[in-house]
Amino acid sequence: MKLDSKSLVLNLLGTDANIQINKKVLLTLKLEEAFFLSYLIDQYKYFEKEGKLRQDGSFYASNMDIALYTTFNNSQIARVKKAGLEKELFRISLEDSRTKSYYYLNFDKILEMIGTEKSNMELAYKSRFDSEKIEIEMNNVEDIDNLKKFTFNELRFYCKENKIKYSGNDKKGDLIKKIIEFKNPVLLEKAHFSTVNDISFTSEQKNRSLRKNAELSNCVSDISLTVSEKSITNQEQINQEKNTCHVHEKFKNKKDKEIENIFHELGINYTDTNEASSLLILKQFDGNKSLLKKYLLSIHNQLKKLTNIKNLAALFSKKLKEIDFILLKQIKNEDENVTKKIEDENKKRETQEKIINISNEQNKIINNFLSLDKNIQKEIIDVAEKKYFKEFPELEKNVVFKKAKENTYFLYLKMLYPKLLDTLKIKYPEILKIGDVI
Fold first, then answer.
1. Model confidence over 258-305: pLDDT tens digits?
2. Does residue 255 sit within a domain?
3. Which residues constitute the domain of residue 313?
């Protein structure tokens, strides 16, 4: 008798026999992280069902168990644990001389991820491009040059997200034209597009020729699209693309010297392409060049660690065009933390200085008070004490308070200071002017 393979497979792969990964979790986290979190949730269910959860809701899981049931190696386990801790998806408690690991799931954080109002498409886009969406400005012809820096896939996603109709046969130039028409159709009157056979959106594709059929009006550089990283690199080796309008040198914008110096420190030419990419990144940092420098140094250091690089400068230029939004956010957060720390330290210092100034002022007034005739002092103290004990009657018969008056009279006067000052202002205002203290 032939087995019903369909029924058997569906039953054997039922929920009880599998680790389930929620779609939103998968699209929010990386595959390894999503699988590891799903494994921990599955373990929680098991311990809860068996009545083996600890009172605080934690459960034990060793690295060996994780390796056996997830097939992760040690480096993968370390990586997903670190990522989960950083994202606050769970906590880990090391107990019994750090030999046992107990996990505490953060269900609020997990629910926040699962219950997000963002669509699966939005989450997939964020996961793919490290940003929630592409922001495109289209106010003038110069913005068209910035649009060229987006990849073919990014432009397609942008069209899809903004419901701009396109076909599978559309090339990169076609997508750009449609986006301009969607954002600011007036610009189409100022620019003419060349017919570009551009399907070069992967790094493996070879060099292709580029035809230029038209020029922008008012002597604006041609907006024809480059079609390979190799052609871009060749342009950079020449250090300047020929301007079709032959704009005179004195009318060109001068390069930012600060940014140019950063490139010189890295041993890389500050080409027009690198300048355009840097200015886009600088805009993300709200014009903060110190943050831009951190970004450039970080990218450069990452590339230096790679082996078999034939042209570091060309690869560096390529990486600048593909803005790393995770790195941007990381640098911004570091800067915000440093700024907050400085602000907190300044506030703390200001508070300390204020306390010191108040204390010094009190000391001056008390010293001036003690220089007065003893009878006048007693008269003022009697009035101040009456006011003080009226507000704090429990201290009138307090032994410690009385001893303070006998043994540390100066400190006693500082305790009475608010009432002492009030009395001086009312009965003897001229005393406050002694020694130029007001």
1. 899 999 998 888 888 899 999 999 988 889 999 999 999 988 888 887
2. no
3. 262-323
